[in-house]
Write a structure and sequence with these properties.
GO terms for molecular function: carbohydrate derivative binding; isomerase activity. This protein is α/β, with parallel strands linked by helices. About 60% of the residues lie in helices and about 15% in strands. Helix 1 (about 5-45) runs parallel beside helix 7 and helix 2 runs parallel beside helix 7 (about 175-195).
Length: about 200
Amino acid sequence: MSDNTLLDKVKNAFTESIQTQISATESLSDTIVQASEMLVDCLLSGHKIIVCGNGRSNANAQFLVTNLLHRYHLDRPSLPALLIGLDGALGASIIADNNPSQIFIRQFECVAQQGDILILLSPQGREEALLSLIHAANSKELAVITLTGRQNDHIRGALGEDDLDISIPAQKEARIIENHLLVINILCDLIEHRLFSH
């Protein structure tokens, strides 16, 4: 592969990412503000944020929980956030003993309380395990915020009227995942601004 071909691939990746962000700026800014207000109201009411990302989105889910529990920009008190995931012995046991669509349910059921918010990261919008979590959240009367991509009909169809979908206007999973990280950063910035910038 020539140097020019490699340079073209780099430039194309930057161009795709920039174009996705421009489209997202126009289509998602209001939705992101609305999501931040839901999260602030949840925290001010003494409830917590539960986060789950399947597959590679687990890394972004971890990053979101880290920003909430530790900090984003400001040195401030920890915010109650909890990651649902499948690391280590717990993950191996749950996967071995459960239907794949139910792998997150046991963790969710034991920590979720009415008034909490569930955030799901689902780039392709069709992960059965995350759809099961939406149904479980609906039954417990938790609001759900999803971070998805353009192909998200399954997720969108499962959401209730009080839920919110932040859908990145892209089809490539790589572009969706990297823009999910940007949305996470913006949400954390808005939450800190609302709660601690006085």
